[in-house]
From TrEMBL:
This is Odorant receptor coreceptor. The keyword Glycoprotein applies. It comes from Anopheles culicifacies. Belongs to the insect chemoreceptor superfamily. Heteromeric odorant receptor channel (TC 1.A.69) family. Orco subfamily. GO terms for molecular function: odorant binding; olfactory receptor activity. The chain crosses the membrane at residues 43-63, 133-154, 190-209. It is found in: Cell membrane. GO terms for biological process: signal transduction. Keywords: Behavior, Cell membrane, Glycoprotein, Membrane, Olfaction, Receptor, Sensory transduction, Transducer, Transmembrane, Transmembrane helix. The keyword Glycoprotein applies. It is a multi-pass membrane protein. GO terms for cellular component: plasma membrane. Pfam families: 7tm_6.
């Protein structure tokens, strides 16, 4: 299957360096690609198999060295560390459609003339933070792998073994590799050692990059959401001032507790007919029913009807173009930030 090159916009364009690195590290991310998808799928499955094989080798070492407490503790910590990476890799592969859906929801590119400057400013801030986060995390990941491999050549390459007959612990020489693992071949020296060493460097780099890139994507969404909230805060002030300047009808708050039926002009709640009592009060003269509970408390879905100069029923003196601007501003505010509320 061939995918044609596409120009991406919005959040997808902002996250494209992260997405490309995730695809290069073997993540099952096939939506935003160019070229044959089959090759990328084969590459992702091959990466998964290679990662799982080394992870099973770590589990094999854990199971085969469970007698000594120190070895068991160290191997358990190593196993849990890489379990975290493998779990994220598999979780993303299984739930890739949910990630596509989330990217689609957040991939907002629309703007509004009233808020274009604010939107561009906060978008640039979010984009700068995303890029800085990606660079720092990837640089730290590479340095961590280099440090992990470097310390392999320091100290003795041995492990503790418990003699069950004498109940004594003695040391045994093991291959000088970055990660203690069990292999069906002899990795002490020769080509088998070189292959095992390169294989573990590959596993270290890819597993840590896969895990950290998934975290960077989540943090990038969080950074975008925070800047969107700042954008929301920035545009709320002019919207509040605009709303305060509108001289619209405000019904009595008591109308919320009383209404008129569709075919009747009388109130649904009336005074019960009973014998006069000094403690009872007639409330019929307190409210003007049509003014307080009237049917005019229904906001029309269409624009107000007025002429080109803003007269004939428009209490704000707005022209039709201004009225459309106000309504489109409200529409923009709702559509742009409803995913943040969700």
């Amino acid at each position: 299957m061939q995918v044609q090159p596409t120009k991406y916009v919005g959040l997808v364009a902002d996250l494209m360096p992260n997405i490309r690195l995730m695809q290069a590290s073997g993540h099952f991310l096939f939506r935003y690609v160019t070229g044959p998808i089959l090759i990328r799928k084969v590459y992702s499955w091959w990466t998964l198999i290679m990662v799982l094989m080394q992870f099973f080798a770590i589990l094999g070492n854990l199971a085969s060295n469970a007698d000594d407490v120190n070895e068991l503790t160290a191997n358990t910590i190593t196993t849990l560390f890489f379990t975290h990476s493998v779990t994220k890799f598999i979780y993303f592969a299984v739930n890739s459609e949910n990630f596509y859906r989330t990217l689609g929801i957040w991939n907002q590119t629309n703007s509004h003339p009233l808020f274009a400057e604010s939107d561009a400013r906060y978008h640039s801030i979010a984009l700068a933070k995303m890029r800085k986060l990606l660079v720092l995390v990837m640089a730290t990941t590479v340095l961590s792998v280099v440090a992990w491999v470097t310390i392999t050549f320091f100290g003795e390459s041995v492990k503790n073994v418990l003699d069950k007959e004498t109940n004594e612990t003695y040391t045994v020489e093991i291959p000088r590799l970055p990660i203690k693992s069990w292999y069906p071949w002899n990795a002490m020296s020769g080509p088998a050692y070189i292959f095992s060493f390169i294989y573990q460097i590959y596993f270290l780099l890819f597993s840590m990059v896969q895990s950290n890139l998934a975290d960077v994507m989540f943090c990038s969404w969080l950074l975008l959401a925070c800047e969107q909230l700042q954008h929301l805060k920035g545009i709320m002030r002019p919207l509040m001032e605009l709303s305060a300047s509108l001289d619209t009808y405000r019904p009595n708050s008591a109308a919320l507790f009383r209404a008129i039926s569709a075919g009747s002009k009388s109130e649904l709640i009336i005074n019960e007919e009973k014998d006069p009592d000094v403690k009872d009060f007639d409330l019929s003269g307190i409210y003007s029913s049509k003014a307080d509970w009237g049917a005019q408390f229904r906001a029309p879905s269409t624009l107000q009807t007025f002429d080109e100069n803003g007269r004939n029923g428009n209490p704000n003196g707005l022209t039709r173009k201004q009225e459309m601007m106000v309504r489109s501003a409200i529409k923009y505010w709702v559509e742009r930030h409803k995913h943040v509320v969700r």
